[in-house]
Amino acid sequence: MAMRDTRGLTFGALLLTSLAAIGCGPSQEDLDAELSRVRSLREELRDAQAERESLESRLGALAAQNVELAGRLRALGEDVEELEGTRVSLEGQLGETQRALAELRAREAQAQARLDTFRQMLQRLRTLITAGTLRVEIRNGRMVVVLDEAILFDSARAGLKEEAHAPLTELTGVLGGLQGRSFQVTGHTDNMPIHNRRFDSNWELSSARAVTVARFMIEQGLTAGRVSAAGYAETQPINDNSTPELRAQNRRIEIALMFNLDELPDLSSLE
């Protein structure tokens, strides 16, 4: 297809145009000049076409590269999203591990504090333990001071014996020195039923004895808010009541060190 500007004119058209411009009798020199100009224009046209083809080729290459880069970016984007998700997951696991470690260290510190408290208490009660006035046991992670009925009360009575005052006073001083600790006094009996004008059952007897001991401890200076009392009758025996000696061991007063609130498991997630 012929071009419409001078660069696109065919050789014949250019020659006719040139001849028309110079008349019917052009000289050889004029013809040579026109031919030279036509050849020059044709070379320029070939160069322009070659440049256009080169540009089209580069454009095609760039388009292909663009497609490739777009694919790589999409893949990279997916990889980045996956890596970001992995990072977030690892950070979450690290946070959970750090919290669990902190909780474990806190529990270890609390356990060590309780152990130190128990050792301190045992040391201060050594005289009473050696004399057989009381014994100290560990049950369900709590320290429990156990006093036999015969040391504190007459049979079927809830009033303290006179000789019980001294050891209970000493015990109260030791317990009162344990800062931040509260106590529960519990009364226990054997399985022999009781019925008299004051106590209808072992429930009333065990509860009355626990209250008597708790009141005495408060009178000796233990803050009332740190001590409570409860009766369990024969429901928590430490022996099987099969002999008088074993039944005697079941008749007792126990004073338990209560757990502090910060030592209990966190149940706030159940709310």
Summarize the structure.
Helices cover 57% and strands 11% of the residues. It has 271 residues and is an alpha+beta fold. It has 2 domains: 12-113; 125-263, 60s Ribosomal Protein L30, Chain: A.
Give a structural overview:
- With 271 residues, the protein is α+β, with helices and mostly antiparallel strands.
- The protein has two domains: 12-113; 125-263, 60s Ribosomal Protein L30, Chain: A (2-Layer Sandwich).
- Helices cover 57% and strands 11% of the residues.
- It contains seven helices and five strands.
- The protein has a five-stranded mixed beta sheet with strand order 1-2-5-3-4.
- Helix 6 (202-219) links the parallel strand 3 and strand 4 (227-231).
- The two termini are 87 Å apart.
- Residues 1-9 have low confidence and may be disordered.
Short key terms for the protein model shown above:
271 residues; alpha+beta; 60s Ribosomal Protein L30, Chain: A; 2 domains; five-stranded mixed beta sheet; 7 helices; 5 strands; rod-shaped
Number of domains: 2
Low-confidence stretches: 1-9
Largest sheet, spatial ordering of strands? 1-2-5-3-4
Percent helix among the residues? 55-70%
- Report the count of strand segments: 5
Radius of gyration: 53 Å
Largest sheet: 5 strands, mixed
Tell me the strand percentage band: 5-15%
What would CATH call the architecture of the largest domain? 2-Layer Sandwich
Oligomer: single chain
Helix-strand string? HHHEEHHEHEHE
Q: What is the fold-level CATH name, i.e. the topology of the largest domain?
A: 60s Ribosomal Protein L30, Chain: A
Please report the number of helical segments.
Answer: 7
Write down the overall mean pLDDT: 82
State the distance separating the first and last CA atoms. 87 Å
Helix vs. strand class: alpha+beta
Query: Tell me, what is the CATH class of the largest domain?
Result: Alpha Beta
Shape: rod-shaped
